[in-house]
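All the exercises in this workshop are built on plain-text protein records. A learned vocabulary of local backbone shapes supplies the integers on the structure line. Once this layout is familiar, the rest of the handout is easier to follow. An example says more than a description, so a record of this kind follows:
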Amino acid sequence: METRQLGTSSIQITPIMMGTWQAGKSMWVGIEDTDTIAAIRAAFEAGVTTIDTAAVYGQGHSERIVAKALSDVRDRVVYATKVFANQLKYDQVIAACEGSLKNLDTDYIDLYQIHWPAGSFNSEVVPIEETMRALNQLKAEGKIRAIGVSNFSGEQLAEAAQYGRIDSLQPPYSLFWRKVEQDAAPYCLEHNISILAYSPLAQGLLTGKFAPGHQFAPSDNRFKNKLFQPENFERAQQALDRLRPIADRRQISLGNLALAWLIAQPQTNAIVGARNAEQSVENAKAASIKLSAEELAEIDAIGQIVTAPMDNHPILWNW
């Protein structure tokens, strides 16, 4: 699989990245460790060498699962993990990084990201200068190779960049959720910051596997996903009906059509989760799909059936 430069760093990432929120099990249902390990390994064997996780996913469980799957090939993979919003004081960042290093069974983290801005989820408001000072120190010590942020607005991203080099932004971004294009993406393009899109399949909606009327259990995080609320879900079904002929013409899945569109956007890469090895192998195929300018424009217009009526709130869930 081709690789791309992460921001201005020396790190090379794959345009399709393996997401492991589900590996933590918390807020997900029907997840088994053996299946997750097989999924991560299958992604690696299919060419996906960039793995995204976070300390908060199952309180370190996801990081430990990543280590179980990939420790023997550590020198051939890129680990990206995150420090949560309630650990952004200087000493807390240092301690959180040490915890992630231990969980991941490694002596360095390739990309270390601020998961949510300080103040999120009623966390303490810590000046970004203090958090960045800790991240710069970790970078100077070689414990992390690059710094990224996640769920930051364009304004928050610009402020963080005053205190150190930011090489990536991780926002929710898909054909059905495009807030970042109006907010932080222009800053990213101007300053050569990679966009690492999470929920690039709109949590499975873009695969077309959820029929009208589908209900999620309240314990499933998709229960509160705005795209699965009735009016938005109905518009999504209309859009999917128009996307299917394009996918059929290309003889590819709906999901891979959506991923191919996304990674064709400027400086954009897709973090894709998988429950099993088969899904990982299928997701990896998207990296080799090259859509024409006409196809990209057609897909773009269809996606706006869903995105145009949505409000400007940046968070994908009604949390």
User: Anything to note?
Assistant: The beta strands are 4-5, 12-13, 16-19, 50-52, 78-83, 109-114, 144-150, 168-170, 194-197, 268-273. The CA atoms of residues 17 and 48 lie 6 Å apart.
